[in-house]
């Protein structure tokens, strides 16, 4: 289980949190290729593109702006223009492992491309 330190509401000492979820347990029990290939991973990912969280019960997507963390400054610019002020989002907990593409085999990239095709097309992601 992954643990992290988190501040308690209202201040006080930090406490450890546990992330106990079937998907986390699966990811911890197999390598990345096996995790991507599992039917439950494929089904969950394919069923939850970005629009999923922004679609109302009547099937209409109600989002005009998506802000991707990896493109935060660029994507948030229309929001700042609309609000008339901006907020800074500092980059914390960044990886020191380098470019993510090196962690994907061609087969893993193909699997991910198949299960995340909608978001890849919408946001212009590529390997």
Q: Could you name the key traits of this structure?
A:
127 residues, mainly alpha, two-stranded antiparallel sheet, 6 helices, 2 strands, globular, disordered N terminus
Model description:
- This protein has six helices and two strands.
- With 127 residues, the chain is mainly α.
- The longest helix is centred in the middle third of the chain and has 12 residues, at 72-83.
Outline:
By secondary structure, the protein is mainly alpha-helical. The protein has helices spanning 22-29, 32-37, 39-47, 72-83, 106-115, 117-123; strands at residues 3-6, 15-18.
Q: In what order do the strands lie side by side in the largest sheet?
A: 1-2
The main β sheet shows up as:
2 strands, antiparallel
User: Low-confidence stretches at least 5 residues in length (pLDDT < 50)?
Assistant: 1-15
β-strand amount: 5-15%
Structural class: mainly alpha
- Multimer state: single chain
Calculate the mean pLDDT score and round it.
Answer: 83
How many H/I helices? 6
Order of helices and strands: EEHHHHHH
Q: How would you sum up the global shape?
A: globular
Distance linking N and C termini: 30 Å
- The value of Rg in angstroms is 18 Å
How is this fold's topology laid out?
Blueprint: E1 3-6, E2 15-18, H1 22-29, H2 32-37, H3 39-47, H4 72-83, H5 106-115, H6 117-123
Antiparallel strand pairs: 1-2
């Amino acid at each position: 289980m992954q643990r992290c330190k988190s501040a308690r509401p209202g201040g006080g000492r930090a406490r450890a949190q546990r992330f106990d979820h079937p998907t986390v347990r699966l990811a911890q029990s197999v390598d990345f290729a096996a995790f991507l290939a599992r039917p439950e991973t494929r089904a969950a990912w394919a069923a939850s593109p970005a629009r999923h969280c922004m679609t109302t019960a009547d099937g209409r997507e109600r989002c005009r702006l998506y802000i991707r963390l990896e493109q935060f400054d660029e994507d948030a610019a229309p929001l700042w223009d609309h609000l008339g002020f901006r907020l800074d989002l500092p980059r914390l907990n960044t990886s020191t492992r380098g470019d993510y593409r090196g962690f994907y085999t061609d087969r893993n990239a193909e699997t991910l491309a198949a299960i995340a095709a909608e978001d890849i097309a919408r946001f212009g992601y590529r390997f």
